[in-house]
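Dear Dr. L.,

I hope this message finds you well. Following up on our conversation about the binding site, I have prepared a predicted three-dimensional model of the protein together with zinc ion. For your records, I am including the exact sequence and ligand specification that went into the calculation, followed by the structure tokens. Please feel free to forward this to your student if that is useful.
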Amino acid sequence: MIMKFQAKPTEVTKIEADVLAVFAMQGKTAEDVLLSDEAKKADAGLGGMLTDVLTAEHFEAKQGSTFVFHTHGKIPAQRVLVVGLGELKTLTMVNWQATLAGVGRRAKVGASKRVAITLPSEILNIFSTQVATQGLVEGITLGTYVFNRHKSEETRKKEKIIDEVYVLTQAGKLNAAATGILRGETVSEAVVFSRDLVNEPPSITTPTHLGEVAKGLAKGVVAITCVVFGKKEMETLGMGGILGIARGSDEEPKFIKLSYKGGGRKTIALVGKGVTFDTGGLSLKPSQGLEIMKLDMAGGAAILGIFKALPILKPKVNIIGLISACENMPSGKAIKPGDVVRAMNGKTIEILNTDAEGRVVLADALSYAVEKIKPDAIIDLATLTGACIVALGEEIAGLFANDAKLAAVLKDAATASGEHVWELPLAAEYKETFKSTVADIKNISGKKYGGAISGALFLQEFVPDTIPWAHLDIAGPAFAEKDAPLTPQGGTGFGVRMLLQFLQAFV
Ligand code: BES
Ligand code: MN
Ligand code: ZN
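The resulting structure of the complex is given below.
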């Protein structure tokens, strides 16, 4: 059974649940615990015992701290979970969601099946009821995510699950909370969809499989259509980049095109890197950690997740999703360093390192977007460079854009949705380094440092300045190497939340 969210106008002292989560903020010092209004009501229902115990136990209201109190029948909720929110002035969507992720996990550990959560009135001065509720749903769903499809049924049965979550809301705000729940559920489902695809073993999520998944998203949905091009069609289109990279693999490459008609006059193209396994090709990667390279289709997986949510969120913009899907394998047929390929826009590329394959497969997808779609904006998502992880770490995506307004809107969408991006420059002074002696450009720069910028500059060669374009290098945040509050180890679905936010705001 999947977790069910429900808005309820019930008082904290009347709600029947296995656990009731109330919040506490931190005042000037860590010891200064300020109970939220709803926590105070629970405390009153418990005859002031909650404050007594919190004081005796030196509870600190740091963000994410928790304390469980058994009510012994004094109120219908069996337990009260006091949750620290930290200082209110530092509260953002990211840590609101992370705090709720903690509530979800704590409830799960305690085998609580029915979880009631207060929406503290202090929070409602920062976020609207709808936005706070959406964040709550996303925090709990994403924080308690598990990928156990391939575990035995015995193991799966042991996984504790939350059945119901009650969002305690003022009676006048039930509709806003219900909308927040629907949006939160829709967005979370999209993120989970994309996480599952990344976590699946790479021999399952082949280019053909991604094509089938895309077709499945269009099935029975009037607003969405899907076309999947195979090798033949890609040859006709002149997609020499992806065809060259795919040559070493037994799996046929696919170029996936999803279209969503949202009405409105604008069209956005979303372009995703869908390298379903990146061995590096003949420029082979070391075997240490190679299994993680199943993440290399995370950009494409994010687009598939986004399309899952579109029919419900119904943004009023037309959206084209383009995914270059292939494997990067070494073999007797594989592309060799020194080979030259011709991208769809006619530019020739000298392949000097077969491990810099992402930019080559994206060259064709970007060319397709520019020539065939002529969109009002292009946004690409790609696990493009290890250098971007060095620059920004594992939780922050690199953002590059040829248009300041698009960059600004994307940054706002990221902040509002709880994702983190940081803008890096498309530094013109580094452009020279792509000069090839035998082709128009080579696929690696002559520079030792600044690899994330080099990758972005290469992509820029395939987009004219007249089309606003942004590139998200998600190599870091696409995959969590270890558990983090909102992202258990594995695929994170990064990009889904910020882009859904962006698309809904786009007019
Ligand atoms: N898929 C990798 C980038 C990557 C690395 C993603 C680590 C996630 C985690 C990409 O295809 C790659 O191999 N990039 C090379 C580029 C280099 C050869 C110019 C890299 O980052 O080393
Ligand atoms: Mn590579
Ligand atoms: Zn790659």
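In brief: Residues 174-199 form the longest helix (26 residues).

With kind regards,
A. P.
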